[in-house]
Design brief:
CATH architecture of the largest domain: Orthogonal Bundle
Largest sheet: 3 strands, antiparallel
Number of helices: 13
CATH topology of the largest domain: hpI Integrase, Chain A
Structural class: mainly alpha
Helix content: 40-55%
CATH superfamily of the largest domain: Intergrase catalytic core
Number of domains: 2
CATH class of the largest domain: Mainly Alpha
Number of strands: 5
Radius of gyration: 24 Å
Order of helices and strands: HHHHHHHHEEEHEEHHHH
Strand order of the largest sheet: 1-2-3
Length: 317
């Protein structure tokens, strides 16, 4: 039996319509190409949202027109320009990886990459709490119950130390150490893998100790789930849980639009308002690269008499 000439063998052609298995394959290629955990988290969420939208209308060809329609859909949700552009960036990368894997025509992928983002008009400021509002926020949970003790400790930590959500949920008891006769979170791995040391005010350490003692936690993650029966469950809690805690407590003080990251902004502003030096605040929050900042400014972070020790929201004595 004669074999067909190679020129006559049908080669697999790139597709114009991608099915869910194709999209999942391209998504895996995108995520595997990212080294930052934060970037992987953001791209995974953005791609999943696009896939849900794309698969809701069957037999759509993945091309420039479809991505333009998706951009219009995102804008109709009144999302911030930065959020829209992040989602579009994830779709562009998805199309690039799909073409690279032979799942999508290179011409269609090139058209998708030409879809422009949304122009940013002005600067989005976000929310900041006053001293009175911040004090009311972290004291709003009822500390008679286990959940209230946990929520107070969590809110105090976010407000006074400026931690991100993923940094708070990943915090372990071993991370709390003494440096220069002052408690601190040592070698905290933050965004993009940047490492910093975060001083903990004595009053925040007191809130943490109260929660840990009541919950009977001696090792592992500091923050855990609390059941309706008032008992700890599991060995961790999720970032989404922190979102709900902040939103519920903020609603109680009349600020329903407050987000967890606004507590990080508030920490920076209150530190500055209380006389904190700009470079010390940058060390505290871990913006960009602490090592680079140290080299350029020739300064060293203080642990004793830390910038966030006295910012006005401490409990009265």
């Amino acid at each position: 039996m004669k074999q067909k000439p190679r020129s006559r063998v049908n080669r697999k052609k790139a597709k114009t319509v991608l099915r869910l298995p194709d999209l999942e394959h391209a998504k895996a290629a995108v995520l595997n190409g990212l080294t930052s955990v934060d970037a992987q988290r953001g791209y995974r969420h953005a791609i999943d949202e696009f896939v849900d939208w794309y698969c809701s209308e069957p037999r759509l060809a993945l091309n420039r027109i479809v991505v333009l329609r998706y951009r219009s859909y995102l804008e109709s949700r009144q999302l911030a320009p930065g959020t829209v552009n992040l989602r579009l960036g994830a779709v562009r990368r998805l199309a690039y990886e799909a073409a690279d894997c032979g799942l999508l025509s290179s011409d269609l992928a090139a058209g998708i990459r030409r879809v422009k983002g949304v122009k940013k008009l002005g600067v989005r400021l976000g929310n900041w709490l006053t001293v009175e509002q911040a004090h009311s926020l972290w004291q709003s949970p009822d500390n008679k119950g286990l959940k209230g003790k946990r929520d107070r400790a969590l809110l105090a930590l976010l407000l006074a130390c400026g931690l991100r959500r993923h940094e708070a949920v990943g915090l372990r008891i071993d991370d709390l150490q003494q440096r220069e006769e002052h408690w601190a979170i040592v070698d905290l791995v933050g965004k993009a893998g940047h490492v910093r040391t975060v001083p903990i005010p004595d009053w925040v350490k007191g809130q943490l100790d109260e929660w840990l003692e009541a919950a009977g936690i001696a090792r592992g993650r500091i923050f855990r789930r609390v059941t309706r029966m008032g008992r700890t469950w599991g060995d961790c809690m999720t970032e989404k849980s922190i979102w709900h805690i902040v939103k519920d407590c903020a609603k109680g003080i009349g600020m329903p639009k407050l987000a967890p990251h606004d507590l990080r902004r508030t920490c920076a502003r209150l530190c500055h308002a209380s006389g904190g030096e700009l470079e010390q605040i940058q060390f505290l929050l871990g913006h960009v690269s602490v090592q680079t900042t140290e080299r350029y400014l020739g300064c060293k972070q203080r642990i004793r008499s830390a910038v966030n020790d006295r910012i006005g929201i401490e409990p009265s004595r």
